[in-house]
Amino acid sequence: VPVSRIRNFSIIAHIDHGKSTLADRLLQTTGTVSDRQMKEQFLDNMELERERGITIKLQAARMNYQGKDGEQYVLNLIDTPGHVDFSYEVSRSLVACEGALLVVDASQGVEAQTLANVYLALEHDLEIIPVLNKIDLPGAEPERVISEIEEIIGLDCSGAILASAKEGIGIDEILESIVHLVPPPQDTIDQPLRALIFDSYYDPYRGVIVYFRVMDGSVRTGEKVRLMVSKKEYEIDELGVLSPTQIQVEQLHAGEVGYIAAAIKTVEDARVGDTITLAAEPAEKPLPGYKEAKPMVFCGLFPTDADQYEDLREALNRLKLNDSALNYEPETSSAMGFGFRCGFLGLLHMEIVQERLEREYDLDLIITAPSVVYRVTNMDGEVLEIDNPSLLPPPQQREKIEEPYVRIEMITPETYVGTLMELCQTRRGEFKDMRYLTQGRTTLVYELPLAEVVTDFFDQLKSRSRGYASMEYHLIGYQENTLVRLDVLINGDPVDSLAMIVHRDKAYSVGRALVEKLRELIPRHQFKIPLQASIGSRVIASEHIPALRKDVLAKCYGGDISRKKKLLQKQAKGKKRMKSLGTVDVPQEAFMAVLRLE
Ligand code: GDP
Ligand code: MG
């Protein structure tokens, strides 16, 4: 196909507004997949999505579409991840497109996540086509939502399409709008090859499969390519398009979207944002905008059973093959023994990895509370990046300490504004902006330390707003603060994995709440266990867990065997997720106590 008849687009939507349903509908309407295939694929996806609670990406799909003008078009849908943790990947996917469908649920309205992605799309000059979805619902208010989009985003909605992905309404209009409104790619076939990697995954048989958009030039199967950032060269074994299953082709040129397999061993060698060029006639410069994914949140992972240390290393190794943003280093804790310090893009990324380690690799892990990366300047001017609170140098060695800040945008019904402002205030937030939108919906903007967000901010936002508020945040930089290290002592011994960095003004209340929580979470032992929180050598809060007086089984009066059995089973199960610190058994929950202080 000539470049003039290619259209590359993506779909931007808040979760549950209908992105997957619309994508499926487009594939079906263009005859890209049959109804039977659709059913199978749909079921697969649903199960995974339900399990993980996140939208599984389709990656990319090429559709052939005959326009009303009688011409044959190729429409490439490039999917984007639906979560802020992966916003860099979203931005690379968008750069591979010339347009985007902005899908908004007509019975709900604009949400924070929608906004974040629309801003990214506007930044990259994409043509945006507003689609009001779910107009079949009795509660749909397309007019209200249209004025919301116009007001918040400043987008002209005169051409907005009213649609129902579920009922198949407005689908033809959407396809025609893509053809007429989204500009074709630039015709740069004569230039040296430059292809943008927007996704990749590891296949155990073929090596890494790399998804890309050809920006300039063309590429053929069998050619030798160079990745301009990783500086590695590979011969292409397989070149193809996604329809959405992989179909091999001989050649792809500027404007097209496809994949290669080239015996690439790990996704680290073919990172999202890298540029593919030809080894024989390389482009002068890579495509702009490459960034190294930088971990923002760190935690310690320790096997409950020291024998599983090597298994844990092997599992992390294997996950890393498919996840270039995952970062880990061996960590030795005086309390916990050998483990790994791991870095993640954000909380969701962290949860996905933890869950896979436990489920797919059958590991029993103790996971320590998440920490952000602090920037510490020493007296001699040296700057350290500290991602583990227990490694914070003592106050007399520090000149200053800075912490990462984020700007957070919330959208909420007006009734919850008060409680959300209170939440931000208790999290050291600084009020920035508030705007009333339509019908009692409000945007609220705060700047606050990332450390206050990675605890349970999101859960608090959801529970305080009964699920109605949404949020989005991005890093804005570092700010100096008066921070101190809070240590926790169990039975007189400091537990390095429980150390945390807090603002001095909050240290007392946090220390008190923490020891109280630990008293609840750590089971009784045969002896009394003192619990203390301290700053330096000063104890700021103390508690104790009284000794166990009677045998647990003594609770079971008489000889009810089945009850006894149950109790013993329960104990055995509880044991699995305990770590012995000296003579005290500490359960997993205790290491997360700091996330549950409210
Ligand atoms: P995503 O999270 O944006 O991918 O949203 P999904 O496509 O998974 O849709 C979320 C829910 O909305 C599902 O239960 C869909 O069946 C439903 N849905 C999607 N489009 C429509 C629509 O046009 N009308 C109605 N009534 N429901 C829809
Ligand atoms: Mg989905």
From TrEMBL:
Residues of the Tr-type G domain: 4-186
Question: What does the similarity note say?
Answer: Belongs to the GTP-binding elongation factor family. LepA subfamily.
HAMAP family cross-referenced by the UniProt entry: GUFP (MF_03138), LepA (MF_00071)
Q: Which organism is it from?
A: Coleofasciculus chthonoplastes PCC 7420
Q: What Enzyme Commission number(s) does the record list for this chain?
A: 3.6.5.n1
Q: Which InterPro entries match?
A: EF-4 (IPR006297), EFG_III/V (IPR035647), EFG_V-like (IPR000640), EFTu-like_2 (IPR004161), G_TR_CS (IPR031157), GUFP (IPR027518), LepA_C_sf (IPR038363), LepA_CTD (IPR013842)
Which catalytic reaction applies to this protein? Answer: GTP + H2O = GDP + phosphate + H(+)
Task: State the Gene Ontology BP annotations.
Answer: positive regulation of translation; translation
Q: Where is the signal peptide?
A: none
Q: What is the protein's given name?
A: elongation factor 4
Going by the UniProt record, its keywords in alphabetical order are: Cell inner membrane, Cell membrane, GTP-binding, Hydrolase, Membrane, Nucleotide-binding, Protein biosynthesis
Short name of any one Pfam family annotated for the protein: GTP_EFTU
Q: Cite the source lineage.
A: Bacteria, Bacillati, Cyanobacteriota, Cyanophyceae, Coleofasciculales
- MF terms in GO: GTP binding; GTPase activity; ribosome binding
Database matches in PANTHER family: TRANSLATION FACTOR GUF1 HOMOLOG, CHLOROPLASTIC, TRANSLATION FACTOR GUF1-RELATED
Q: What does this protein do?
A: Required for accurate and efficient protein synthesis under certain stress conditions. May act as a fidelity factor of the translation reaction, by catalyzing a one-codon backward translocation of tRNAs on improperly translocated ribosomes. Back-translocation proceeds from a post-translocation (POST) complex to a pre-translocation (PRE) complex, thus giving elongation factor G a second chance to translocate the tRNAs correctly. Binds to ribosomes in a GTP-dependent manner.
Q: Which domain of life is it from?
A: Bacteria
Q: What class of enzyme is it?
A: hydrolase
